[in-house]
């Protein structure tokens, strides 16, 4: 009976942690500049000790390879320069100005649910012949809430819903 209770307890903890989710509405503003290059954008999660645990998105010019990734300075230092195939599944082309929806299922890069607790969400944008913006915000997995980040130059307002 104790063993069955232990298994049930472990299953409940796993399902609660696995149920954590982030819904992110990321805005790229329309900039009236010439020449305009779409920004590279990286979104990732770090644990409380600032170790990267999950890469949510990486938008870059696909034909350029990794040539300009170094301009995403925080991402490059934490993940980019040593990244292998683990970021392939979240890498895509740069996006047009407007609102873009991202979802994260609360799992690390290996597909394991992260335990409830404090994490840091990082959002960085860098544009060739443009500027660089960076947000780092604390989130708590396992605790629902809404977070709003103010607009900067390369990034418009960002809405985050922790579920």
UniProtKB/TrEMBL annotation:
Key words of the record: Signal
Leader sequence residues: 1-19
Keyword Signal: yes
Superkingdom of source: Bacteria
Pfam families linked to this entry: DUF2271
InterPro entries named among the record's database cross-references: DUF2271
Name recorded for this polypeptide: DUF2271 domain-containing protein
